[in-house]
Amino acid sequence: MSPVTPTLDLERHLLDEFPFVIGLDEVGRGALAGPVTVGASILDRAVADGEVPEGLRDSKLVTEKRRPDVAERTAAWVLGTALGWATPGEVDERGILGALGLAATRAVAGLREQGFAVERAVHLLDGDRDYLSRVAREELGPLDVRTVVKGDRDRAVISAASIAAKVARDALMVDLHPGFEAYAWDRNKGYASAAHRSAIEAHGLTAHHRQSWAIAPAQPLF
Fold first, then answer.
1. Whether the Cβ atoms of residue 71 and residue 54 lie closer than 8 Å to each other
2. Is the pTM of this model over 0.85?
3. Which domains, from first to last, does the chain contain?
4. Which residues form the RNase H type-2 domain (predicted)?
């Protein structure tokens, strides 16, 4: 079965009411090391009346080799894209949903810094948990946020955000690899591969790990 091609049906419907639609998706939620990253992509009626870029899919359905090319073509298609990041320390301090809220707020703020009136947009957030509204209210004011289950698969604007975030975070983890070769971040991107877990057992956690997560070897009681 071929991967599902995302559509613009929902975006076109919403653009009857809003001047912009912003799609958001996260990467790195389940990783043991590295930041969480949220991509935010924005489109308007003119973009939505066109065609979805060739090869655009949920980033998990695009091979690592093809992602940069698809991301580049997608970035040229949308009006704009911004990324927000939350550090491992912020994951430890706020929990994963709180950190995702920070990253998502920073991504939307990035679009605002590009000149987009984000307060006039409807925000489509992949998944079933709205981690954006409460955090964003303090910095950006109230936003119209709607969760979309399987949005990264089915909705083109969320797929655009997904692939931008995935390419950027993967590149960061490759850049962090030198000096931490035992953890194999160039291959596992901070996720819980066997090599990564073995390295944690042998060498412990680094400053790039989420210290509050139960990933370190158990300490002896005596």
1. no
2. yes
3. 9-175 (3.30.420.10)
4. 19-222
